[in-house]
Amino acid sequence: MNMKVILTAKETGDRFSEKEPVSFSDGRASTHIQLDPERRYQEMLGFGGAFTEAAAHSLSLISPEKREEIIHRYFDPAEGLGYRFGRTHINSCDFSLGNYTYVEDGDASLKSFSIDREKKLVIPLIQEAMEVAGEELSILASPWSPPAWMKTNGEMNNGGKLLPQFESVWADYYSKYIEAMEEEGIPIWGLTIQNEPEAKQVWDSCLYTGEEERDFIKNHLGPSLEKHGHGDVKVIIWDHNRDVIHERSKAVLSDPEAAKYVWGTGVHWYVSEEFENLSKVHHDFPDKHLIFTEGCIEGGVRPGAWDTGERYGRNIIGDLNNYLEVWIDWNIVLNEEGGPNHVGNYCDAPIIVDTLNNDVRYNSSYYYIGHFSKYIKVGARRIGCQISNDAVSATSFENPDGEIVVIVMNVNDREEEISLSCGEGIFTTTLPLHSIATFMIR
């Protein structure tokens, strides 16, 4: 048995650096991690990021060489982060260049439906990513708002609700989108009902109660998808924060007629880090799945920040240890402002491109995500992982080939000596301050 070590640390130049292999030790450190491959939990389906119009536009403004570099750094299965999932928006979102839909105003027949807007920027980016990945990506599509004329407030922004007379039309709109994307060689893996259905945002938004979401799925979206031959597309509810994920899931999944159409529940990281709420959903509805659909650093770019990467690490570990199966980041790329964003809701991203100087910056978050996505393979199964104290946080998986992968994060201002045991072997090593390490045991 031997252990390979990959390290990223704030105070050193280590970024996915392979360190000297760790050998057996006779004793345990005060911080000990006990692995139990016999205790098996959820299967990991993969990691990914979002193909927004903002990301695609930013990548269109830099050199082809830099653009290709970034796509490879995310989607190359060997040299990149190994992303296998992507998220994109149905109609516009805040990270679009403006509000837009796919139909002419008032066209309830949907005869004018066209995704020509997406063919300019978003679709070519997804196609390039799929080519680099060497396989189809699993694309999750989410609406931020129906067209303004379908809503109670008559606009795409500032909340509002879907008018009852357009529920069936809006349900058919999803199928139109699926078919249009498939014509471009992009199968849609899954749909969420509505991005952040409990948030009245100044950008594209639409409000649903849990009961309204339940009834829309049961009476309109589920039947429409089946009618149009898209019953295999995964339907995901909630697509919002952890604070009330349990209550919102129960509102839909307690109804068998709605639940039969639903694959699982989507979660964002804003407002709450109550990771245990995911386990509550899992234990109540063990046949359904959990997927992280969005998280980003709010408030614009944070050059050189390290706590941003640690926020990613903390959230990924917390979610994975509570039955999450898919983890999808928000914008894969943003520009030097943290946009473009049509209402000025600037954020950070793992990769920032300076479109004025054709420069690329990889943030700490890029490396922290990679410590999971590069090494936890599709089909990996989470295994038992018990830590003797809270000096570090960790999660562990067994890959399909039998390799054990353990990701350990130290957020302290001091180095931490840790030991790991798996079976009869004990390994001891030291984690630098503010670091994350991936250990691979064979």
How would you explain this protein's 3D organization?
By secondary structure, the chain is an alpha/beta fold. The protein folds into 2 domains: 3-42 and 382-441, Golgi alpha-mannosidase II (Immunoglobulin-like); 45-375, Glycosidases (TIM Barrel), CATH 3.20.20. Helix content is 27%, strand content 28%. The chain is built from 11 helices and 20 strands. It has helices at 53-60, 64-75, 116-120, 122-133, 167-183, 210-227, 245-253, 256-259, 276-284, 307-320, 364-373; strands at residues 3-9, 17-22, 31-43, 46-50, 85-90, 138-143, 188-192, 234-240, 264-268, 289-294, 326-331, 333-335, 351-354, 359-362, 381-387, 393-398, 404-410, 416-422, 425-431, 435-441. It has a 9-stranded mixed beta sheet, with helices on one face. Helix 2 packs across helix 4 (122-133), helix 5 crosses helix 6 (210-227) and helix 7 runs parallel beside helix 9. The radius of gyration is 22 Å and the shape is globular. 52% of the residues are buried. The model has no long low-confidence stretch (mean pLDDT 97).
